[in-house]
């Protein structure tokens, strides 16, 4: 119960500040989640960090939804360590040209998290100081976590999905 | 052209800088890391870390595996404390499925997780000793890691990559031998840990090598998203077990040790104190288990927990559940969930998106070693090479967790 009121307060403050830029607010398993846009994402992150004391960047990653118009979601997890609240922010960007401003201006720790996201999803973080691949080799040529890349050789006949009722 | 292997180009004929490839398999780095360092004498001028040598695409593989088959993947993240990863994953799925565990199962999990934390910290602290020249301490305390593995072996049959427990609890109850071994461990380990501390904590050579080396302020640590003993050594009392209790950690009485300067000596002290606290937690858990009903080792959730084999052969419902679970056809809600546990190195997070299929739509591991390690190269600038080596040991970077 208490968590919900806290989350409501944060939601009210964010809406006051950013208006319609804060959309699709939900609360799965008590974790406040909302979607925002890439023109305000850095302002949102700095506002959360400076004003609402979400001082800790837990994680940056991405999700690929091939059937959506803006098929790449960049997901931020922030943490307010004093009041013990977590928050999740999503920004959708296009699959053809996924770009988003870098969060390294807000947290230095975003550097490798963004490199990992670039490596696996091809999201280009604008003005990132060192946007190179991090875990895969440089000449891989693809961003392997995108859904169009199969895990195994698609020509194998012993692992077809229909044999497993999928 | 390979951008990940930067070559320092130095056209100045007067320059005396040397480029050193530390790694990928350097005997002093305990794992597969490469750091290309530019040295001025013994001092590091600049460095670039290259990682990914044991990347195994776990997040991609996880998108093609039913939930219960992902547990063996988590084993291989931080393989020095795999039970914490296993149980972190189980708890993530249990959170998704809204499974509430009986207290006894929670306490059994706490025992196993704290034993793993001890084994993780044993590795780190003895290796700091080893790298500062004290082989005795390494050999002395390391045998207790073996005793912990014997306990795991008794509980789940495996030692290093444990695959311990199931979604919903444990695969079997702890037997008498397991409890006897835990009790024996609790009797013998504090004696050895005390002796270990006597050998190192006030040792002049050890303090000279570690105190004041690689100091980190709490502001920098938070800026770089550090967690775990490294963050606590800088003075921030953040521990997931306390701030976001899981597996009934709120029932236990323990302290979160913090340091002041964030140097290697503080990290060593924080880890040592955490081992004492872990011993305290295990003792409390054993005491609490006595008042819980005996023989309960899993939640009563037949849809998600594999039935005993005897029932599968003789009972219709059990056979159906068995088939559905093994084929990954369990009914999990379409939702996304983030769950964090306090791993050996810090906050180990699981971000799971389920679309109702038999496999996760997306699973992301928030790996503390990966996040913590990014500061290593910039920290090393201006440091002696020998200090950078013990700095790396004290960060306890586990290659499996770094590269996933």
TrEMBL record, chain A:
It is an enzyme of class 7 (translocase). PROSITE patterns: COMPLEX1_30K. Residues 38-153 form the NADH:ubiquinone oxidoreductase 30kDa subunit domain. Its EC number is 7.1.1.-. Pfam families: Complex1_30kDa. It is found in: Cell membrane. It is a peripheral membrane protein. NDH-1 shuttles electrons from NADH, via FMN and iron-sulfur (Fe-S) centers, to quinones in the respiratory chain. The immediate electron acceptor for the enzyme in this species is believed to be a menaquinone. Couples the redox reaction to proton translocation (for every two electrons transferred, four hydrogen ions are translocated across the cytoplasmic membrane), and thus conserves the redox energy in a proton gradient. NDH-1 is composed of 14 different subunits. Subunits NuoB, C, D, E, F, and G constitute the peripheral sector of the complex. Belongs to the complex I 30 kDa subunit family. This is NADH-quinone oxidoreductase subunit C. It comes from Pedobacter mendelii.
UniProtKB/TrEMBL annotation, chain B:
It is found in: Cell membrane. It catalyses: a quinone + NADH + 5 H(+)(in) = a quinol + NAD(+) + 4 H(+)(out). Keywords: Cell membrane, Membrane, NAD, Quinone, Translocase, Transport. Residues 131-403 form the NADH-quinone oxidoreductase subunit D domain. HAMAP family: NDH1_NuoD. Belongs to the complex I 49 kDa subunit family. NCBIfam families: PRK06075.1. This is NADH-quinone oxidoreductase subunit D.
């Amino acid at each position: 119960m208490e968590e919900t009121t806290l989350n409501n307060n944060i939601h009210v403050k964010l809406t006051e500040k950013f208006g319609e830029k804060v959309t699709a607010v939900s609360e799965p398993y008590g974790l406040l989640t909302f979607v925002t846009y890439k023109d305000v994402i850095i302002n949102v992150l700095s506002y959360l960090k400076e004003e609402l004391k979400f001082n800790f960047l837990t994680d940056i990653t991405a999700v690929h939804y091939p059937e959506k118009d803006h098929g790449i979601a960049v997901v931020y997890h922030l943490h307010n360590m004093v009041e013990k609240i977590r928050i999740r922010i999503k920004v959708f960007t296009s699959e053809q040209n996924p770009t988003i401003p870098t969060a390294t201006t807000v947290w230095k720790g975003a550097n490798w998290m963004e490199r990992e996201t670039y490596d696996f999803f091809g999201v280009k973080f604008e003005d990132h100081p060192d946007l190179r691949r991090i875990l895969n080799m440089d000449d891989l040529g693809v961003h392997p976590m995108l859904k169009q890349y199969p895990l195994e050789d698609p020509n194998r006949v012993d692992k077809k999905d229909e044999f497993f009722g999928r | 052209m390979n951008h990940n292997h930067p070559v320092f180009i130095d056209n100045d004929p007067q320059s005396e800088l040397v480029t050193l490839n530390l790694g990928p398999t350097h005997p002093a780095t305990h794992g597969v890391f490469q750091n290309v360092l530019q040295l001025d004498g013994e001092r590091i001028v600049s460095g670039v870390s290259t990682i990914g040598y044991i990347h195994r695409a776990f997040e991609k593989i996880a998108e093609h595996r039913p939930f219960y088959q992902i547990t063996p993947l988590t084993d291989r993240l931080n393989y020095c404390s795999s039970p914490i990863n296993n149980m972190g994953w189980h708890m993530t799925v249990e959170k998704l499925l809204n499974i509430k565990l009986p207290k006894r199962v929670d306490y059994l999990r706490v025992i196993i997780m704290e034993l793993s934390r001890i084994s993780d910290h044993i590795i780190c602290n003895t290796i700091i000793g080893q790298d500062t020249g004290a082989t005795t301490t390494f050999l002395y305390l390391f045998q207790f890691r073996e005793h912990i593995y014997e306990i795991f072996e008794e509980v789940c049959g495996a030692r290093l990559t444990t695959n311990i427990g199931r979604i919903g609890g444990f695969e079997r109850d702890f037997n008498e031998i397991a409890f006897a071994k835990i009790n024996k461990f609790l009797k013998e380990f504090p004696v050895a840990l005390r002796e270990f501390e006597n050998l190192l904590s006030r040792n002049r050579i050890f303090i000279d090598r570690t105190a004041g080396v690689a100091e980190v302020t709490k502001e920098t640590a938070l800026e770089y998203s550090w967690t775990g003993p490294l963050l606590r050594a800088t003075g921030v009392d953040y521990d997931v077990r306390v701030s976001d209790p899981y597996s009934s950690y709120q029932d236990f009485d323990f302290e979160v040790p913090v340091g002041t300067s964030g140097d290697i000596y503080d990290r060593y002290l924080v880890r040592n104190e955490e081992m004492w606290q872990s011993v305290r937690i295990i003792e409390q858990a054993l005491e609490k288990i006595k008042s819980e009903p005996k023989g309960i080792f899993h939640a009563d959730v037949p849809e998600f927990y594999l039935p005993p084999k005897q029932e599968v052969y003789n009972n219709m419902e059990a056979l159906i559940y068995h088939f559905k679970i093994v084929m990954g056809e369990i009914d999990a809600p379409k939702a996304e969930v983030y769950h964090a546990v306090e791993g050996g190195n810090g906050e180990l997070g699981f971000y799971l998106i389920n679309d109702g299929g038999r496999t996760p739509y997306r699973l992301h591991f928030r790996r503390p070693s990966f996040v913590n390690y990014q500061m290593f190269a910039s920290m090393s600038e201006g440091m002696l090479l020998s200090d950078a080596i013990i700095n790396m040991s004290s960060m306890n970077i586990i290659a499996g967790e770094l590269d996933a």
